[in-house]
């Protein structure tokens, strides 16, 4: 897919790539992006199916929060495109039976516990997580 | 960026949890994710689109082919689509100005323009550019002549648009490669002119 001559051109005519903002605001966003694209390439789901979920996720957020994107939602959650992307990824995987919400929740707790062990962030992970999982469950049933 | 630590932390953990489960199940290879990310971060960017525009400015026959069948003309330069969608090129002239949006989600010609900028995906741009495009363009720093017709194109899963911006005046002596440097991403979305950023 990647044309070798295009790659070779970087350095000489790089300008159009530099005239924008960052592509990803946080490292997890590029990860979520990469996972979703990689799975569509290997056929775990079709791109159309992912896109349909994404449209639904974005629409759902806008119905709840208004489409001007300036007012944070009831959870105080500001608009973030890749959060909708992540929710779509999660839903398309759960619907397809690839992963279950239960195993996802427990893996998330394991990782959080592991992080707390590794270095003391001073954050209260448990509180944040349980809130988000409650929120997540309501999303899945819709 | 306006998000508190807990929301970022949740999303980050959730993403890692998904990746870790998929890798464990043998569904996903971590290096496949690395490859996708680096391809889009490093190899595929608006430079591809800029090459298309510069070629069209330099070669009238290529421009005709681009406006008639953009998918084919873009493929001539070795650039091909990821999901096989059709490309349509829209020519900006002194009489008509085109601007592109995706009101439903974020459809965008990745192989030609790279990944979309943050504002392109925002609810505000997607909603407002359809209702009051002149005001939105003005806020983005592009003032159009009142006599210029403004057309807003809504991308879909099947059709992705790119704008062929007007060639800046005083560029007759420039080579195709030099012209490439004048073509910004924003000019190919239609929210700026070429040669300005």
How would you portray this structure in words?
The complex is a heterodimer of chains A (142) and B (197). Chain A has 142 residues and is mainly alpha-helical. Chain A has one domain: Cyclin A, domain 1 (Orthogonal Bundle). Chain A has helices spanning 4-9, 15-18, 27-41, 47-65, 81-95, 101-118, 125-141. In chain A, α3 runs parallel beside α5 and α6 (101-118) packs antiparallel against α7 (125-141). The longest helix of chain A is centred in the middle third of the chain and has 19 residues, at 47-65. Chain B has two domains: 5-42, no CATH class; 45-189, Nitrile Hydratase, Chain A (Alpha-Beta Complex), CATH 3.90.330.10. Chain B is globular. The interface between A and B is large, with 77 and 76 residues.
Descriptive key words:
heterodimer; A: 142 residues; mainly alpha; Cyclin A, domain 1; disordered N terminus; disordered C terminus; B: 197 residues; Nitrile Hydratase, Chain A; 2 domains; two-stranded parallel sheet; 49% helix; globular
Strands of chain A, count: 0
Helix fraction of chain A, binned, reads 55-70%
What is the strand tally of chain B?
4
Rg of chain B, alpha carbons: 19 Å
CATH arch. level architecture of the largest domain in chain B:
Alpha-Beta Complex
> In CATH's first tier, which class of chain A applies?
Mainly Alpha
Given helix and strand content, the structural type of chain B is: alpha/beta
Overall mean pLDDT of chain B: 88
The overall average pLDDT of chain A, rounded, is 70
Strand content of chain A: under 5%
Please mark out the parts of chain B with pLDDT under 50 across 5 or more consecutive residues, or reply none.
none
Q: Largest protein interface?
A: A-B, 77 and 76 residues
Strands in their spatial order, largest beta sheet of chain B:
1-4
Major sheet attributes of chain A: none
Q: Identify the CATH homologous superfamily of the largest domain in chain B.
A: Nitrile hydratase alpha /Thiocyanate hydrolase gamma
Broad CATH class of the largest domain in chain B: Alpha Beta
CATH level-3 fold name of chain A: Cyclin A, domain 1
Using the alpha-carbon principal axes, give the shape of chain A. globular
Distance between the termini of chain A: 38 Å
